[in-house]
C-alpha cells in the first residue's frame, strides 16, 4: 500500500492541495475509486481514496451527513475533489469532517484527469506489492510468517533474534536503544558502548560515500557496517513520515552477515513501517471514539445512558466511583508557539499522567476548542486534587514556554453527571484563565461564590451588570486614567503609598484622582460596601469584553487571545 502523504508526492499528483485533515496523511490507500453516485457506502471495503468532481455530491445536509457517516464507518483514506465546474470549492462540512476525524480532504483543478491520478496511484501500489512478494519468495516461509504476524517493534526484534540466534536492536536517531532482544546464550555485551562504536563506523562510511557522490542510505536498504573486530553488524534505516526516525540492527559476534540477513532486514523494515502506520490508525480511531463519547455525554446524555458501556469498553475505561471533567489550557505563553504544538504536548503529558498515576483512569481530547480531561477514579477527592496539582507542577517544570491553567468541575458520583462537572469547568474557565501569572489548578468546589455570581452570565449580561456598578465617566475614554487608578487601588488593598509608587505619581496627584473617583461613585473608597462592588465590577471586566481563553483556527492553528481576565476573588 501507499500512504496519502506518499501519493501526493507522485508526479501526476503535483497539483494536489491538502485542504483539511493533515493529521491523517499517514492513512494507507488500498485503492483509488471514483464516486459516481451519492451513496457509495455499499461499495467500500475500507482504505479507499475517493475522487469526485462534485457532480453527484449530495445537495442537502441529511444526505451529505449519511454519506460522510458511511465513509467514516469504512475508514476511507481520503476524499479528493476536482473543483471549478460542479463545485467552486470543497464543501465546508467536508472540511470540518476531515479535520475532526483526521481524514485528508484534497483538491485539484477540474482539468486534472482522474485517470492519470488513479493510474499513478495504482501503479505504485502494484509495484510495492510485487516487490514485497518478490522479497518474501527469497526468505524462509517460517520467518516471513513470523515477521508478518508481528504486532510491535519488539515482536520484530524477537522474531529476527530467534531465527538467526543473534541480537536484534532498534535505535532512535540519537542512537538510543528503543527495543532489543539478545538471545540467552549470547555472551554479555555493553550494548550502549557497542552501538556507539557501530554508529561511528556507519557515519564514517557515510562521509566516504558523500565524497564519492554516492548515497549511503536508500529507503529500506540494509547497510553492511564494516568492522575489523566483532560484532559484525548490518543496519537498515527506517524512514517514517519523510524522516529517518529509527534504525533496525542485526549483530553477530561470530561470523559476518550475509545476503539472507540483508533480505530479512529489508522485509522486517516493511513490517515495522506497517506497524507504525497501524498504530497511528488505532490512535486516530481512539481519538474518534473519545470525541464521540464527549458528544454523547455533553450533548445527548439520554443516548449516552444506552451507549456508554460499549464506548467505555472500546476505550478501555474502568467504571470507577468518582468522575470529574475539566480543561488543561496553555495559559500565558512566554514565547509564541503554534496551538497544535501546545495541544500535542499537553495531550501527551496528560495521557502519560493518566497511565502512570495509580488509581486514575480516563482520557483527554480536544473538544469545543479546549483540551478536555475526563477522569474516572476510586480515589478520594483530596487525593485526585493533589494528583492534578502535581500534573500542573510537572508540566510547568518541563515545558518552560507556557504556564498551564487547569480548571475542573466538581467530582460526581456517576458518569452521567459528568455533564454537570463539564459545565462547571466551562463556567469557571473565563474567570480564572490567565488570572495568575504563575498559572495554577482551579476547582469549582473552591470557587462556588464566583460561579454563583458569574457562572451563568454571557458577555452582554456582564456588560450590563458592570455598567450598573460603575458610572459612565469611569468607563469612557476620558475616564481611562481614573479607571486604571481604581484598578490599581483595588489590587493593592487601597494602600495609597503603594499605589502612588506603582503608578509613578505624586501622592497629591493620587489624592486628586481619588477625589474625582469618589465624586463619580458618590461614595467613599474607604467604605467596605463600595470596595465590595468595585471588586465585583473589576471581576466582570473579562466577561464583558468577550474573554473566553482561546479557540482553534483550522487554517493556521494560531492562538486567539484577549486581554487578561480577572483575578479570582
TrEMBL record:
Chain ranges of the Purine catabolism PurC-like domain: 10-125
Domain of life where this protein originates: Bacteria
Domain PucR C-terminal helix-turn-helix: 482-539
Protein name, UniProt field: PucR family transcriptional regulator
Organism: Domibacillus aminovorans
